Amino acid sequence: MYENYYAVIMAGGTGTRLWPLSRKARPKQMLRLLDERSLFQISVQRLQGLFPPERILVVTVRDQADDLREQSPSIPKENFLLEPMPRGTASVIGLAGIALKQRDSQAVMAVLTSDHFIGNEDGFRNLLAAAYHGAQDGLLVTLGITPSFPATGYGYIQQGDKIGEYLGREIFHVLSFKEKPGEGQAREMLETGDHAWNSGMFVWRIDQILDEFARQMPELNNQLREIAGAWDSSARVETLERVWPQIKPETIDYGIMEGAEKVAVIPAENLRWNDVGSWDSLFEVLPGDAQGNIVIGGQHIGLDTSQSLVYMDEEHRLIVTIGVNNLVVVDTGDVLLVCHKDQAQRVRQVVSQLKTEDNNFI
Amino acid sequence: MYENYYAVIMAGGTGTRLWPLSRKARPKQMLRLLDERSLFQISVQRLQGLFPPERILVVTVRDQADDLREQSPSIPKENFLLEPMPRGTASVIGLAGIALKQRDSQAVMAVLTSDHFIGNEDGFRNLLAAAYHGAQDGLLVTLGITPSFPATGYGYIQQGDKIGEYLGREIFHVLSFKEKPGEGQAREMLETGDHAWNSGMFVWRIDQILDEFARQMPELNNQLREIAGAWDSSARVETLERVWPQIKPETIDYGIMEGAEKVAVIPAENLRWNDVGSWDSLFEVLPGDAQGNIVIGGQHIGLDTSQSLVYMDEEHRLIVTIGVNNLVVVDTGDVLLVCHKDQAQRVRQVVSQLKTEDNNFI
Predict the structure, then answer these.
(1) What average pLDDT score do residues A315-330 get?
(2) Mean pLDDT, chain B, as a whole number?
(3) Which residues pair with B110 in a beta bridge?
(4) Which chain A residue shows the shortest CA-CA distance from B324?
């Protein structure tokens, strides 16, 4: 019954928030943080049973394509679409849209992330199935996450009236999309009970989303049509390389979702979703020992050490911690990060600083 | 006027308190912590003007001898005395004593350390000169340090009546030697004003200290006499190798000083002496930056970082600290130590643990 259902995994991000582990040459989705699989491999494998590999598309950049193909050899080579350079999620989704349309004009397309944690994978597949039905009924479905705390690191979706139910999941009209809030606003939204976190994942019919591009982003739409015209010809690469640099960077949220019609949200509970957006987020997704410590790689001896994370690239090194709490220690060989857990977001500041200098640390 | 004055530098220690930098194969006196010179080199060079190199003896172990000779090529090769194995400071001083006696029966001998910091080197040379006069007058002179805080990491010397003055420095009878005290006792001793820290440095006439060995440590004395008998013969090495392992380990404090006659102390003020006995002691001897941070080696970026020490073996590595205070970070390539400053003494605990296991980390 889901034979026209396709997954589009966005895997072109670089991600500086897990620096120094995430780098230009080793983006977040390639990291093996949770188990022996990379976040990308986990993102692909949790689709099993709902999307066979031939119905999974991956949009990425040239530098990452070989590695990603190697990590997921079951996905056909031609399903990897290459952005010549990053131009925001609107263009990524547009590119996947025109590629899919050539293949199946009836396609329903799930736009998925490649670098998030989802603890409840059964629940996630059920959510994707419910969203499919919503999309078939003509809705642009956003996957929401019922908030468990007043997060300031995520965007929010304000729910309106209930539209109905699919597979036991309620679906609501969307009143508005909201940017990452301050702490007070986040607390208010949590209290109202009618806001969900924006997971950045969407499900819709291909014809419908392309109509929205035509209506709301005519310039990008023309550029995409030019690329689509050359898609099945020998001029595909040349056209893409020529047109893509002219595209104005834009996100799908700003460019399409905020002004779209028939936008709906299915808020999901108990997915144990986490965007693994910073080192401190690992405390939420990985089990700690009795002292709440998480040790990844290396050998560790801890005296009076608690609520701390130790990551080491090299298995044969010894790390000793004495009298430390709430500390993140990340050793990548060339760089050593020692950071209070509550300030883990500030690694971005360091990356920004390093970008202005001549070095190999980013 | 000091032509019979000899320095004996004890340089056989291993020192686990600056682990992971100090190792079996890289003891504390060989570390270049304060500047480009090792602590041993500094200890030799600050004797300049008082002891020419030919009157400096170094007692060490075989494993360290080559490195030490290389670090101080001006000291004659034969001035390096090798303990076959560590047997405590009493035997070290006894060995130096018999070697010196063969050379100059009128010798005055200053027993000095190889791994301490002394900020005021002029003051130190003046102290050694004053102690020489005390020794010539038949006193066993211990060099005391006027305490600046209630230290629990040093032994103490209780001063009795004043004997007199040498070169403007007062000299006192010694009432007792005291072990490292608890905090309350340390505070009391500081308040009385008649206690000095025991620096482990001594000055005495060679005939007088050897008399004390004969009187108080007859067994060791016999062993030393046997070695002395073979000293200028081809049997020196064989005799040393045979006799030394039978020596019972003992310190000079317990074995001789506590029961000796004519023991005196010159308490020195303003020497800026420090035994560099643990990582936190470096904050007392090295200048910090505006935030009180000390960075040795490597490249450092600190956000919201204060009162912390960063040591790195490799110059090309980057270390980033964010939101940390009072932290000691030491990276020696194979080992990374991250330790609260106040718990720096506990690295010994880790070394003890590692000794029970099969590894190359100590």
Answers:
(1) 95
(2) 94
(3) B7, B203
(4) A340
Q: Residue B125 is which amino acid?
A: R
The string of pLDDT tens digits covering residues B106-126 is 999 999 999 999 999 999 999
Residues A337, B322: C-beta atoms closer than 8 Å: yes
Instruction: Report CB contact under 8 Å: A322, B301.
Output: no
Mean pLDDT, rounded, of chain A: 94
What CATH number is attached to the domain comprising B188? 3.90.550.10
| Residue B153 placed within a domain | yes
**Same domain (yes/no): B55, B13:** yes
Residue B288, token pair as written in the block: 């910090």
Give Cβ neighbours of residue B66 (< 8 Å, ≥ 6 apart).
none
Is A347 in CB contact (< 8 Å) with chain B?
yes
* Interacting residues of B279 by C-beta distance below 8 A, sequence separation 6+: B17, B18, B309, B328, B330, B339, B341, B344, B347
pLDDT average, residue stretch A21-26: 88
Triad A144, A148, A151: Cα angle to 5°: 80
pLDDT at A153: 87
Residue A130 CA: distances (Å) to CA of A8, A93, A107, A110: 17, 21, 16, 12
Q: B335 and B209 in one domain?
A: no
User: Quick one: B124 and B155 in the same domain?
Assistant: yes
Calpha distance A50→A40 (Å, rounded): 17
How many domains does chain A contain in total?
2
Could you tell me if residue A15 is inside a domain? yes
ipTM reported for the complex, 2 dp: 0.87
| B361 domain-assigned | no
In a domain, B362, yes or no: no
Same domain, A170 and A30: yes
Domain final residue, candidates B223, B241, B274: B274
Residue that terminates a domain, selected from A274, A300, A315: A274
Which residues in chain A have their CB less than 8 angstroms from residue B349's CB?
303
Q: How far apart are CA A11 and CA A26, in angstroms?
A: 12
Instruction: In whole angstroms, give the CA distance from residue B344 to residue B326.
Output: 10
If pLDDT is split at 50, 70 and 90, which confidence band does A17 have?
A: confident
β-strand A318-325 against B335-340: which pairing, if any? Answer: parallel
- The pLDDT, as a whole number, for residue A358 is 86
Tell me how far CA of residue B171 lies from CA of A49, B11, B20, B184, B340, in angstroms: 89, 28, 40, 27, 40
User: Which regions of chain B are under pLDDT 50?
Assistant: none
Q: What pLDDT, on a 0 to 100 scale, did the predictor assign at position B197?
A: 96
Chain-chain contact of A320 with B304 (C-beta, under 8 angstroms): no
Q: Is A348 on the interface with B (CB under 8 A)?
A: no
* Per-residue pLDDT band at A128 (split at 50, 70, 90): very high
Structure tokens at A340: 């209070």
Among B residues 43-102, those touching chain A with beta carbons less than 8 Å apart: none
Domain that holds residue A33: 5-274
The model's pTM is: 0.88
For B258, the token pair is 């506590």
Do A254 and A336 fall into the same domain? Answer: no
Tell me the per-residue pLDDT of A204-260, one tens digit each, with 9 for 90 and over.
Answer: 999 999 999 999 999 999 999 999 999 999 999 999 999 999 999 999 999 999 999
B257 and B226 fall within a common domain: yes
Indicate whether B238 and B290 sit together in one domain: no
Q: How far apart are CA B139 and CA B132, in angstroms?
A: 9
Tell me if chain A has a CB within 8 Å of the CB of B318: yes
Amino acid A15: pLDDT: 73
d(CA B282, CA B48): 25
Residues A350 and A213 in one domain: no
